[in-house]
Each structure stands twice: as structure tokens, then as C-alpha cells.
Write a structure and sequence with these properties.
about 120 residues; mainly alpha; 2 helices
Amino acid sequence: MELQNKVMQLVQENASVVANKGKELKGHEEKTNILLTDLNSLQKKVEALTQEVAHWKKLSEYVLKKIESQALDSMHNEEQLIECNKEKKLLMANGPEDKEVFNGEEEEDDDDVKKEKKRR
């Protein structure tokens, strides 16, 4: 009988240990599911942020190209202005009657060139 009681006691202890391990396993499975859900949510956020970064990168590249284009246009315009002023001076040197037409405009054009250079 004593042996039978000890065996019953061991069986009950083992059943209790198995039940506790089962509860632990269920708790770990629940935590794992929560962590997987969080992981999926974070992956979606990373994908969205990656797309947003790509959008802003494209936009910044576009803006940079626009700035470079406008800088080239500005340089080209300045070169044209300088050439026009040279031509005007040649015309004024060649004909005294042209001087009257250009006298008022010459000072304005020189001021425009100076302002453009200061702006840069």
C-alpha cells in the first residue's frame, strides 16, 4: 500500500508539473503571437517609411535639378546681358546719333549687371 501511495503521489506531482508546463507553454504561445503581430505591424510601418523616403529622395533630386537648371539659365542670361552691353558700346562708338538713344539705358544696364553679380 505504501508503495502504491508513493506511486500515486509521484503521478499527481508529475501531472501537476505537466499542467504547469502546459500553462507556461500556452502563455509563451500567446506572447509569441503578440510579438508576431507587433513584428508584422512594424514591418508595414517600415515599408511605408521606406516609400516615403523614396518619395522625398525623388523630390529632392527633382528640386536639385531645377536649381541647377535655373543657375545655368541665370549664367546664360548674364552672358547674354554682357554681350548685349558690348554690342551697345560698339554701336555707340560707331555712331554719334545712336548715343542719344542709348545714353539713358546704359546706366540702367550697368546697374542690372552689378545687381545680378551682387545677388550671387
